[in-house]
Amino acid sequence: MMQFMLLFSRQGKLRLQKWYVPLSDKEKKKITRELVQTVLARKPKMCSFLEWRDLKIVYKRYASLYFCCAIEDQDNELITLEIIHRYVELLDKYFGSVCELDIIFNFEKAYFILDEFLLGGEAQETSKKNVLKAIEQADLLQEEAETPRSVLEEIGLT
Amino acid sequence: MSDVVEKTLTALPSLLSLDSQPGTGKLSGTSKLGNLIRNIAELTSKHDEEKLIKKELAAIKEHVSSPNTTLRQMKEIMVRMIYCEMLGYEASFGYIHAIKLAQQGSLLEKRVGYLAVSLFLNESHELLLLLVNTVLKDLQSTNLIEVCMALTVTSQIFPKDMIPAVLPLVEDKLQHSKEIIRRKAVLALYKFYLIAPNQVQHIHDKFRKALCDKDPDVMAASLHIYGQMIKENPEGYKDLTESFVTILKQVVGGKLPVEFNYHSVPAPWLQIQLLRILALLGKDDQSTSELMYDVLDESVRRAEINHNMTYAILFECVKTVYTIYPKSDLLEKAAKCIGKFVLSPKINLKYLGLKALTYVIQQDPNLALQHQMTIIECLDHSDPIVKRETLELLYRITNGQNVTVIVEKMLDFLRQSKDEYTTIDLVGKVAELAEKYPFTDNNEWFIQTMNIVLSVGGDVMQPDIPNNFLRLLAEGFENETEDHQLRLHAVNSYLSLLEKDNVHVPQRFLQVISWVLGEYFFLKAETKPEVVLDKLGRLLDQSFVTSETKGWIIAAITKLSSHTVCPNTVAEVAQKYTTSLDTVLRQHAFELKHLNEDRDLIRRVLPLDASCEDIEVDTSLSFLDGFVADALGRGAAPYKPHHQRQEELSQEKALNYEPYGLSLPVSLSSCSITGRQSPTGLSLSSGLSGNSTEMGPKGGSNSLKLEGVRNVWGKEGYLPQKETTAEGTLQVLPGHEGPGTEESAMENASLQPDLASPTIPEEDQEKQQLASSLFVGLGSHNTLCLMGKSENTSQRFRRKTNKTQESSNASEKFSDSSISSRSTVESLMDNNILENTSSEQETELTTLNQSSNQASEFQDSTTPDGLLNGGEREKQDMSSDPSGQAPSLFTGGDMVILQPSCAAAENEQPPATRPPPSLPTELSQLAHSGVQGLCSNESIAVSACKIYKDDSVVLVVFITNKSTSAIKDIIVRFAPTELKVSESTSHGFPLLEGQNTANCQCSVLMEKPCAQGALVGSIAYQAEPEKSSELQFSLAFALADFIRPLTISTEEYGKLWLAFSNDVKQNLKLLSDAKDPLTATLNALKETLQLHIVDIIGTEGIVACQLLPAIPCLLHCRINTGMLAVWLRSPSPDLPDCLLYQCQKAIQKL
């Protein structure tokens, strides 16, 4: 089972964090700090896997963004690498050629996609089409709901 | 930093202008969040950022608490709060609003609300309870999206206690018409199963339904639950093997819809999940494994495309093939796969190849030989992770011949590594290897390696490393001269280390140094003790030395001062620390001061080289009897056990003085140093024992590894013809090897034996040399001995572990009595001080029993069963005095190997070396203790052995006639004590021929429960006509000897619990370092005390046992604020009390 997933920039700025195990905020911060440091210190030709404490870390860099997952000992590193890749594919498809800024400004959308793809640390839906369908359905409702509401608000507030 | 800011800033205008375009329209560049993000990006310092966000959070706080804020605004605010939290600023004031948003908002606001909740809170957060109602409502909604959201949040975070409230609703969703709902419901149940398996026990049949779901995604989700359940109990799901095999067959065969393909690999996630489950099911099970051979073969065959995903599947296949019951052609294919990984130019695959090699190397050491060139390359890889994994691999193939090279490589890595976790792990491994092969190179190697371990490992390493090292040094190996050399090397190297000024040595290392110098300074005759004293004295003044270490140093000074007259330094030290604020140091100083005033005493108390001598401890503290009687006489209140006091206190509702109870053991410890011991609790045993040479020739198991290797690999380990081919490849592709070349080289190697090339570049020669030194001793012939780690250990090592176990027992037994609250340094110290008393004791007993060769033995009251007896027998050896008792023949575990008696040789041998009598065959199969001598004189010897039958304890008494003439009218009688001997209390033998052994059996019962009792008896006989003699003996029994598991069901337990009236409650220590402290503690208790664990539910466990013949005792254990609250009930008024005591002791030992 995946323990957590972190997205951070080349400068070490955290862009997304998802924890599948209950940890205190203090521990989360410590782990994040340590991992960001360790991963950023690694050279590009080095291998994508790390042994870190009793966990295995799988990370991959896409443009300026690092995707970093922690998995347990019996988990498969390569498939985790593909999970990262599939997530990037999903983001790419959703945002249309995704860049770091998309994720910075729309991080809640990135979370929604992640939740639809991974649930409780396991891949729940591996079909790209289905994940995006589920997200788009929810988005559609959003737009429907948004239009009348904003009109009302404008009337009410201004 | 600046360049991203620049990029961001330059990108912003274009972003804004693109705002209206589809796709990027989702960028809310003009929102408040956008502003916040942009403002933060403009800042240059962390301090400014902090200020800005504090301001932002203050504004948000005001907003959220205002009644005018609409839900729509709240949604926007919530997103900003998530952002602030991600940057590391707490916004806990908003958590409740996140819950409110999830509860009251319309769909889109609800979505953000749920997201915020799942990001802000974790399972144990109290606010989460407020979410339950919302989830309940949404689960019942007719809107699919609402149901989805509720299920999503449920499978992420949900309070454990509230599971029953939503469970029926989630269960219902398993029948939902939409697969997405069914899938999420299954995952929610998976989450419930993980956090509270008992809650979902009743719906296992519904899991089966999910497994049969027509939608592959729902089925795949159910595999998570099955994976977990099978991991916990593989036996329970063997019947599903065929179903899993069928599913995998269909997946591999491409029977699933194309949309489940991932880069044209059919449903890889599903495949891997199934492979993992098959591995769990087929492990150690031939018939189940046979079901899956075909599909595994197909999986390996089909995974051909060169894509990461295929490799992921292959890797899982390899793991499964090597986990299940082996099949040779599958293993061969898997080995080929590993080759693909290892030889891949891609670093990720190479790394995993090394991992796979590490995994399978114990089963198939030849694989390491095949890939030795790659391994050598990886050893010098620029990526430390790859290097580290290579070392792990080498660690697994270490043997007596390559250990020096491998350890050297590990030490190289250690010196560069900065990661604490790696250091701890690697230091432990080096220490393990060094201890396993201490004499590989020469004695110096061991000491030097350990020096590096101790200085690099410093204070982060596992504390048992220095302890084991000292134990090894003190107990020695089998050869006196080697031991002597080893200790001398240690002393030399430490002295030269202290020579340097301002050396900064880790505390643990200093402790080791001071102990060794204190113990073995005399070995270095040319250095005067005064010089050593001086060095230690100077160390004491160093500011970096902690007070714990100072304790060790003063202990060493005390030992040194017993053999030198150097009043100045010693007196100074003593004087200085008698005023120390640290009580332990002060105590040491006072001891030193007093001992120094009595030269006679100090020599007796601290004899040279006596760290391994055994010490008897009077656990009953009977030397205090007089003191107690006096006190009682003066009208003091009688002592009440702890729990009784607690109960009385709670009845009286008085103040609880619990914390003050701790001071008790400390005050006792000082008494025990001066007090005399009484014979209570001591028993006698003659050291009937075998001979140490029976242990097998030293290093015999090592020599095995050489055999057969030579034929293929030669002494160089690496054949020249192969070297040339491999080297050719290397020249073409420096740093990487072409896939397959290595393999073909391998094949060619044996065919072209005379292709040796003279043009091998130096660098490669080095590599080959390294290869030959690393892979020496590996080969097909020693597959067996490499199969498992334990089989790999040498005879010598095995002996060592036993000793280790023994001495830890001994030292713990020791600390039980008086100094449990003090650290190792004190116990080492006290060890020596007490020694004197114990030897005195010994003399006393010896006279009492009119025999010269008896070693007294402290019979521990918790000796529970056969398991510990190995250690105990060993201890007997340790206590053997110089009168020539040889160590016993003993291999460890609960089986004592007994030597068949050899009458002819016995005449010449001193009586003590006589092999112990052997048990009747029908009894030797049962768990039993070692044979323990009870009493003996020149003509007769009595020894006994306890047999732990399921329904009784049988004592077998052996009577050996040591003389050559017959002995008549032997009668063994047992006196009535708290222990009852059933059947008859006397056994007679009319005649026992010379050099013969007779035995009689009787079963022993503990009539009234007590922690320990002695069986007292006598033997009368006539060695010469008309002259009868009599010998007394006694044998200690512990309560644990009579405890047996009581196998009952939970319901029966419940009934019995209510029926019993006598109860005792107490808090015990919990094995808190274990993953599951409750289970670990209970299992440990079960191991030592023969209890039956009826059930473990969450943080509570119920345990049952009985005192023979049939007095039940029930234990109810619960984790309570880091302690194990134990509640014992029994029909017997004394049993709970005594059992509790045994439990306490058992836990202390762990």
From TrEMBL, chain A:
Claim: Ubl conjugation is one of the keywords in the record: no
Main location: membrane
Protein name per the record: AP complex subunit sigma
Matching Gene3D superfamilies: 3.30.450.60
Highest classification ranks of the organism: Eukaryota, Metazoa, Chordata, Craniata, Vertebrata
CDD domains: AP1_sigma (cd14831)
Oligomeric form and interacting partners: Adaptor protein complex 1 (AP-1) is a heterotetramer composed of two large adaptins (gamma-type subunit AP1G1 and beta-type subunit AP1B1), a medium adaptin (mu-type subunit AP1M1 or AP1M2) and a small adaptin (sigma-type subunit AP1S1 or AP1S2 or AP1S3). Binds to MUC1.
Lineage top rank: taxon: Eukaryota
UniProt membrane topology term: Peripheral membrane protein
This protein's record includes keyword Membrane: yes
Matches recorded under PROSITE patterns: CLAT_ADAPTOR_S (PS00989)
Compartments, record wording: Cytoplasmic vesicle membrane; Golgi apparatus; Membrane, Clathrin-coated pit
TrEMBL record, chain B:
Superkingdom of this protein's organism: Eukaryota
Keyword flag Transport: yes
Pfam families linked to this entry: Adaptin_N, AP4E_app_platf
Location of the AP-4 complex subunit epsilon-1 C-terminal domain: 1044-1148
Coiled-coil region: none
Ranges of Low complexity composition bias in the record: 681-690, 834-851
Compartment(s) of residence: Endomembrane system
InterPro entries the UniProt entry points to: Adaptor_Complx_Large_Subunit, AP4_complex_esu, AP4E1_C, ARM-like, ARM-type_fold, Clathrin/coatomer_adapt-like_N
Biased composition (Polar residues): 804-830, 852-864, 879-888
Renumbered residue ranges of the record's region Disordered: 679-703, 718-770, 789-892, 904-923
Classification via Gene3D superfamilies: Leucine-rich Repeat Variant
Membrane topology category: Peripheral membrane protein
Swiss-Prot/TrEMBL keywords: Membrane, Protein transport, Transport
Family, similarity comment: Belongs to the adaptor complexes large subunit family.
Protein name: AP-4 complex subunit epsilon-1-like isoform X1
Species whose genome carries this gene: Huso huso
